[in-house]
Amino acid sequence: GNGSIVLSVGTSLYLTEGNAAAGDGAVSADGSGNIHLSAGDTISVGANSIGADILSGTGHVTLLATTQVNFNANSDIRSDGAGTIDVESSGGSITQVSSSLLTTGTGNIYLYAANNVKVGDIVTGGAVAVTASTGFINDAGGLRLGLAADGTQDLRRQSGLFGDGFGLGFPDGL
């Protein structure tokens, strides 16, 4: 089917996969179904070393949190085709660990945080925009943004815009 998934909670939202061995995702929308998850506090994807994925066939994926969005080890957002990924923390930070992947075929990927953004892996044939309104944009692997510890690029995209709260902007400058 092509149904969308919408879930909104007033507190925190913790996503884990019920059967990690199956790899079926914590939230999965088939076909062109969109996924919209919002929390009045924190969204945490995955727990400990067990990953949790948010999967959409070709639809858009949106995560909106007031305080924090965390992507733990092996926790991904995946959408094929032109699906857009939008992750926002209106009052806090976004944190990806180095093994976390945000990927879409040709869709755009947007990350906005009021404070800091820590980037794991981001892959798209579209554009990427990362904004840390009052904080920093950092690489989760501890290296220069754009080069992962495994020697691969963290950011693979057609074009990008990166800006932080200190007046630094990098129009496709990584």
Describe it:
With 174 residues, the chain is mainly beta. The chain is 0% helix and 44% strand. It is built from no helices and 19 strands. The chain has strands at 5-9, 13-15, 27-29, 35-39, 42-45, 54-56, 61-65, 68-71, 77-79, 85-89, 93-96, 101-104, 109-113, 117-119, 121-124, 127-132, 137-139, 155-156, 159-164. The strands form three sheets. A seven-stranded parallel sheet has the order 1-4-7-10-13-16-19, with no helix packed on it. Strands 2-5-8-11-14-17 form a six-stranded parallel sheet, with no helix packed on it. Strands 3-6-9-12-15-18 form a six-stranded parallel sheet, with no helix packed on it. The radius of gyration is 15 Å and the shape is globular. The protein starts with a strand and ends in a 10-residue tail after the last strand.
Helix content: under 10%
* Distance between the ends: 39 Å
Briefly note the structural class of the backbone.
mainly beta
Report the sheet-strand fraction: 35-45%
Overall radius of gyration = 15 Å
Total count of helical runs of at least 4 residues: 0
Tell me the number of strands. 19
The major sheet is characterized as:
7 strands, parallel
Q: Helix and strand succession?
A: EEEEEEEEEEEEEEEEEEE
Largest beta sheet: strand ordering: 1-4-7-10-13-16-19
